[in-house]
Structure formats: structure tokens, C-alpha cells
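REVIEWER CHECKLIST
Item 1: Sequence provided? yes
Item 2: Single chain? yes
Item 3: Sequence as submitted:
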Amino acid sequence: MSKAPVDSTVLGIETSCDETGVAVYSSVRGLLAHTLHSQVELHAHYGGVVPELASRDHVRRLLPLVHLTLERAGMQRTNIAAIAYTAGPGLAGALLVGASLAQAAAYALKVPALAVHHLEAHLLSPLMSSPAPRFPFIALLVSGGHSQLMRVGGIGDYALLGETLDDAAGEAFDKTAKLLGLGYPGGPALAQLAATGRPGRYRLPRPMLASGDLDMSFSGLKTAVLTEFRARALAPQDKADLAAEFQEAVAEVLVGKSLAAAHSTGIRQLVVAGGVGANQRLRALLNEKAALRNVAVAYPPLEFCTDNGAMVAFAGALRLAAGSFARDPGPPVFTVKPRWDLESAAAVASE
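Item 4: Structure as written out by the authors:
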């Protein structure tokens, strides 16, 4: 008779930028609870994230959110088998808030502290969906800070296939939204405006779409929008049409590069993760084109596209099951990695 699987419960902490996320994930029962505090209102006045303010808000919010999440999960601190935290990449001060609390709590509870790569957590998050994609797959990571295509052979088995040479897709969305006079955060505001516009009225470039490799570039798109913006006074419908064309250009590049990656590797499973992965036009175009190429596409639930604690807890649970942690960590000694290459994450599970 086979033994029942061990139910290991992981507390996940995410503080890489401007969201304070906490979650409890069970290896047997799945996600038990998650909470998230967004700092959008705090940073809106400045038109972008202010690192010092972000760090201070994490200090204020994190411990109460941990207590609330444990309460919602019906868990006691002594039931936690490990604590996972985002160790990088991200804002150094923000990362230190989550890392210091996680390491101190893990030491007090005598459980492992698991240092999770932020992008690894994103690319593994679709595995929480049902049915879950299987390894190997191609991962399109698209957010405000990253636009990358990775070959994912398994947990910790990551190979970079292509990336943006300048602005990330989400960064281009935010900068273009600012040019058009939209609010913060710019990406969702631009997508909302684009829904009322007509792509094709303006013709923007599709940078590097036919470059023959899997790299991308989005800075030129922003410049092209600026050129149109300066050429004439834009009426509200003009702005909507320009926003729609910009969104279509970004979507076409991301879809084209993703399907090229699937073709070149022979892998027919594609996973999309990161904040831009919530863009409805990107999803619709990718689903349409992927179906024609017999490529399956998986996404995390919409609420887990942006930064959150659930993806960190889940990645930590996978690392814990694989035994990828320091078994006798001793007193808390740790570093955070504001810049951290995902391909090196395989060798670094905890500090």
C-alpha cells in the first residue's frame, strides 16, 4: 500500500516592488489563502514607484498581512513547514523587508527559508491552474521589468532563448500611456483606452518581428507614438486609435516571437506569465495564432499575473519537495539579489 503524500505547508512572501503579497500553499490541498496590498495609490502622485516609499510601506504592511493570511488559512505558525520569499530581482530595499522577516521567522520556527527567484515564481505560476502544463514548455515572461522567452525543462532548468534589447513590453506600455496623458499605472489605462480604438488607422512598426532571432525591442514603438503625438493635436478618438495600434503592435511582436520559439525548439506548449500576460488583446491574438500552429497556451489566473504571494509560496513548495534548500541553515544570514539571472536560479535555492 502506497503512503499518503506528506502535506507540507509553505508561507510565501512577495515584496520585490510595490505589492506586498502573502500566501499559504499546501502541497496536498493547494492554495489555502492569499492576501495582497497594492501601493498604486501611494505612488500615483509621482507617476511611478518611489523605492524608499515602497520599502517603508512593506515594513508597515507585511507582518499584519502574514497574521491575516494565516488566520484565513486556518493555520498556526507552528504548522508552517517552510517560508519562501522573493530574493530578487527587484528593488533592494523592498526585497530586504521580505527577506529579513522570512529569515527571522524561519529561524524562530526552525524551518527552512527558501529564496525564490521572482521570475521563476512567475513562470511556474500557470502550474497552479488545472489542467497544468507539463514540462518542457516555452515561457513568455512579460512584465514592466522583463520581456523574455525561456525554455523550461523542469524546476531550475531554464535556458534563455530571447529577450528585449531595450524597454520591456510593460515598460513600453507605461511610457506610452504617459505620453498620451493617461493615469498611473499606465498599462491597464492604455489597454482600456485601446478597447475603444481602431487599430490600423495609424501604422506603427513591429520592431524586430522579422529579425530571424528571438530577441525583441519596444523602445522604438514609444518613439513612433511620440512622433505621431507631436505631429498634430490629437482628439480623444485619435488617442484611442493610436493606443489600439500600439497595443496591436506589441501583441503581434510577442505572439510572433513566442510561436517562433515553439517552432525552433519543437515544443508545443507555451506558458505566458507576468503582468502583461493579463492583457486581453494579447491573449486573444495568441490563442488564435497558436491554435493554427497546434500550440497549447496556458496562463495563470488573472489575479496571479501581477506580483503576488501565491506564486512565491507555490514555487517554494516545489523547491521544498525537491529538497532544494539548506537543511541546517543556522542563524539568519542572507543576501538579496536586485539583479539576478534566471538561468542561475537552479543553483541558488536559499542563502
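Item 5: Key structural point noted by reviewer: The radius of gyration is 21 Å.
Item 6: Recommendation: ____
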